[in-house]
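User: Hi! I'm working on a homework problem where we have to compare a predicted structure to a textbook description. Could you give me the structure for the chain below?
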Amino acid sequence: MLKVLDLFSGVGGLSLGFIKAGFDIVLANEIDKTIADSYKKNHKNVKMINEDLTNLEVESVFKDLKGNIDLVIGGPPCQGFSQKGSRRLLEDDRNFLFRYYYKVVKYLKPTYFLMENVPNILTSGDGVFKDEIYMLFQDLGYKIDSNVINAFDFGVPQVRKRAFILGKLSEKISLPTGSNLNTTVKEAISDLSYLNSGEGEEIQNYRMKPVSLYQLQMRENSLKLYNHKATNHSVVALERMQLIPKGRGKEVLPQEHLTKSIYSGTWSRMIEDAPSVTITTRFDTPSSGKFTHPYLHRAITVREAARIQSFPDTFIFYGSKTSQMKQVGNAVPPLLAEYIAHSIMKDYKQKKLIKIRNEI
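Assistant: Happy to help. Predicted structure tokens:
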């Protein structure tokens, strides 16, 4: 079984996808204690290092993995890419955390590596970040493929575009280009569409049966429903949502209900028969984006957001609600991760088979 190290792991969306594809995650690293605890509770067989990777001495921390890791995965944080202007981008240290990821890859020299990040990492600063990443890893002997991938093209009920950089020692391997699966918001969460504002418990029974293949997939082996608790909205917020019919948004609100917001889709309902917009870390607030339920007067719950991110119902989010939203909103959709993992596994098995044939 191919052994994997997950850096900057978050709650483990990438890890889960690779586990489902048959990989063995042996070690993960996450700086946030609550998120690291949530990772550990969902991945009980994985050792977790809850530290700032930039403070770790690579040679001492990862020495036991030397020669025993086939793949390094991870998504170095990228907060600085929200800034405007090439100079400010280059002056922000947060944009260069990929260098620490590189140091680990350089030391372990796995056969493969997979880096996930915001799409801007491939274009910002006139390509300076992409150029440096390519140069660093090519100097180690890796052949690289990179692309911006939309999770919706892989069956995830969400338009979520992220950059992936995939490398392999000596030979090039290509990222997958998509599947024939498309999933809508309705197919993802309609079996959970019954809570009103302020209702629900952290642990409860299912009230409705699954009505789509996606819901069946998400509910497999789940006996209880977790994290399905609706935000207790204010009276004013409820008044606004009640004025917005299915498929509409703030354009129907009277002047006295219009608010200033920097977020696209503010006070807009999700469209049932379409994918969701990108799930962020503020999906419990109607003013923060297109996160109002398709027809109920509330924002989506943590569990509904997790469904839209393709986390199965057996995956439980722990900690405060703010932390749970961060765990869900920052994760790589496990279903997308699984497709990428399968493409790597396929490449490995093909090369292994060729090697066996050549030895006969």
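For your comparison, note the following. The two ends are 23 Å apart (CA to CA). Confidence is low (pLDDT under 50) at residues 82-93. Good luck with the assignment!
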